[in-house]
Structure formats: C-alpha cells, structure tokens
Amino acid sequence: MNHKLWLLGRVAAVGAHVVGEKITRPKARTAGDVPVDGGSITADWLTAVLCRDHPGAQVDSFELANASSGTSTRAALRVQYNTQGEQAGLPTELFAKMSTTLAQRIVLGGAKVIDGESHFFTAMRPEVEIEAPRGYWAAHDPDSWRSITLMEDIAVTKGAIFSEPTAPIGRDQMEDLVRNLARLHGTFWEHPGLAVLKTPNEMLAAVLASIDMKTRAAVGLERAGEVVPESLRGQSERLWAGVERALDLATTQLPPTLLHGDPHIGQTYRTAEGRMGFADWQVVMQGGWGHDFAYTVTSGCDPEDRRAWDRDLLRAYLDELGRHGGKVPTFDEAWLIYRQQSMFAYAAWAFTIGRAFYQPRMQPEDTCRTLMHRITTAIDDNACLDALGV
C-alpha cells in the first residue's frame, strides 16, 4: 500500500511536469538537461553530450526521422559535426529513445525501470563483448521521469534487421542468441556492480504496485485461450503461483548475474554479417541466468523447433558460460532451472494481450498470440509448474 500511495503522488507530480512542459516548451541546451521530446533537442545539447571529450568539436546540424511511439518514443537521429568532430570520428547515425508522454513515464517510472538503459549503456555495456548497440549518452530526471538514451543506430551502422516475432527462427540464429546471453552472464557473474540493480522480486513488486499484472495476465490467458494448451486453460491462479515462485528462485536461489530482463524474440536483430544481438535494455536487473535463457528460447522457437533444439541450445549456453567466467551447473541442474524459469515469459505476454484500456498498446495482437502459444506450449511440454512444486 505504501508503494501505491507513493505512485499516486508521483502520478500527480509527473502530471504537473507534463502540463508545465506543454506550456513552457523548454529546450535542452546543457548536459544536465533531459529533453522533453525530440522537438526540445538542440545542437547545443548534442554538442554537450556527444562532444564532451573532444575540445573544439561541435554539432553543426541534426535531423530526426522515422519517429514512433510505444512504451517509449523512438526516432532516428542524423548528426553533422564541424571539422574537429568529423576528425574525432564522433557518431553520426544514432537512435534516440525518450519517455515523452505521461503514460510512458508512469509505466517506466512506476515499474522502476526508467533508469535501466541509462545504467546499462553508461556503466555495463563498455565491459562486455556482445552483439548489442553501443551507447553514447543516457540520462533521466527523477522528478519529471523524463529520460533519453542515445545509442548506435544499428539499422544503419550494421545493416541490422529486427526479428519478426511471428516468423520462425533458424537453429544457428537461436544458438547465437543464447551464446550471446552466456557471454553477458559470464562476464557479470556475481559482479560487485550488480548491487545497484533491482532483483526479479523487486521488479515484480514494482509492477504490481502500479498495474494489477496478475489480473491482466488472467484476462490475457482467456483472450488467448484458443492458442493455449487445454491443460492450462482456466489455470490462471496456478500459473501466477508459478510466476511468483520462479521469480523468487531467480532472486534468492541462483547466483546473480546481469540479466537483460525482457529478452523476447522481438528484441533481437540480425546484422548484415549474420550476427544475432539483443536491443532494448530497459529492464536490466540482477538475478539467475535461467530467467533470460528460458525467456529467449520459449518466446523465440516454434514448438516443434524447441522440442528438437532446446537440449542442444542449453549445452551451447553452458559451454559459452564456462568460457566467460560463469560457474557452470551440471546439465541436469541446468535443465531443471530452465523448466522452472519459463514462467515470467508467460506473465509478460499474458499481461500484454490482457491489457486494460488505460495501458499503452505495446505489441500487435498477432504477436501476442504467437508468443503465448509458444510459451504456454513449452510450459505444458516441460511440466514447468510441476518443476516448481505449484
């Protein structure tokens, strides 16, 4: 209840900021400013954040293109520098993510993920060799819940094509993804820098305080009923008990590492060279490796492919984890963890398709149904609820 009261107060305060911004239309000019939206970005601000380590370099001009809005507001950013900036090799093809609307700020701030990408791109991305965008600047304002991340526009720099969630993915592509996760997890295995990140339990508590995820997941289970295995229809209470148990195990029983947190197949891309990577690091947290592995495999593989591949994918993951500093469990131990950690993927997508009228529409319905089919079929095939004892 205390968190709910806190959130109500924050809604009022952030709402007042949004109203004030619409009246004053402030411009961002110094590195301490967090832009309200794309229209408030200036060449002075870009100079302050992109040229900060290169005296004499400055941004001469820029343009925003291909803006879109969902959980955040996104736009491509093309930047031109003076001669010093060009000689310094400063980035010209960027991608901006911002929290511009009241709904975006409440969803991200209320779930306590408003600073997720800021922390990942500034403190952790430079330490690990994985396929993921490079970050150039990230900041958030704790009062207004404005936020912005400037990152590499991989569609231009790497010829990246984002995965179509409803399309099948190849065996080699899926292995590349789980090996990418293993490099991330191994690098940050029990890393001291994890202490500042929330745990899966803390993430769930924050979400529940802002939105009734349990109820919305129950609604989503009904809405997607025709693609859910018959054995799980009408089992929302048991499924939710599995979600809570899985997140608690990821928080309290497994060695902590850096988790992507939301590594569904729609967050992935393929570069022109054929490398698979993860984008959208908003939900980074600390917890057990199985959370990311299970979410990636169960959301990405069609059921027949998963049944044929998941054991080999787990072996590939464990092999890569050991190469990069992680403590490798036995295969049987890892298989149990994979089964147990397959539950949050269900909650995330049942909640998405079960959204209430006041929630932003985060994903198309056909994507929700496809992933609900894959994930719930995996839960049924692998007796995940039995593995959790619920």
TrEMBL record:
Keyword Membrane: no
InterPro entries, alphabetized: Aminoglycoside_PTrfase, Kinase-like_dom_sf
Ranges in a coiled coil: none
Family annotation (Pfam families): APH
GO molecular function: transferase activity
Keyword Magnesium: no
Keyword field: Transferase
Domain Aminoglycoside phosphotransferase as annotated: residue spans: 116-322
Record's protein name: Aminoglycoside phosphotransferase family protein
Lineage: Bacteria, Bacillati, Actinomycetota, Actinomycetes, Mycobacteriales
